[in-house]
Amino acid sequence: MTVETVKQEAFTKEMIDNFFRLSRSSYAEGLGCIVCLRATST
């Protein structure tokens, strides 16, 4: 496992955690967050 892989996994896990936290408070907001992230990452 490279450092890059570890970073990527940590980032992915964080994103998933954030998504579930947001979707619990508001499903629509959670989806909006995913869309925003996808838009900013490209």
List the helices and strands and how they pair.
Blueprint: H1 3-25, H2 27-41
Helix pairs in contact: 1-2
In short:
The mean pLDDT is 78. The chain is 90% helix and 0% strand.
Explain this structure to me?
The protein is an all-alpha fold and 42 residues long. The chain has one domain. It is 90% helix and 0% strand. Helix 1 packs antiparallel against helix 2.
Kindly report how far apart the N and C termini lie.
Answer: 25 Å
What structural class is derived from the secondary structure elements?
Answer: mainly alpha
Round the Cα radius of gyration to an integer and report it. 12 Å
Please state roughly what percent of the residues sit in beta strands, choosing from under 5%, 5-15%, 15-25%, 25-35%, 35-45% or over 45%. under 5%
| H/E element sequence | HH
The number of helical segments is 2
Q: How would a textbook summarize the main sheet?
A: none
Mean residue pLDDT? 78
Roughly what percent helix? Answer: over 70%
Number of strands: 0
Q: Tell me the count of domains.
A: 1
- Overall, the morphology is flat
The parts where pLDDT drops under 50 for at least 5 residues are none
